[in-house]
Amino acid sequence: MLFVLVLTVFTNLIIAVAADLIVASFVFMKKVSDITERQTTLTPVADEPWADEVTIPETIRNKLFIKHVDGPLFFGFASQFLDIARQAAAQSRLLVLRMDRISYMDQTGVYALKDALTRLNAAGVRVLVVGISVAHLDLLEKLQVIPAVVPESNIFSDFDALKKALDGRIGEMQAKSDARDKKRRDFKTHAT
Question: What are phi and psi of 47, to 5 degrees?
Answer without folding.
Answer: -80, -65
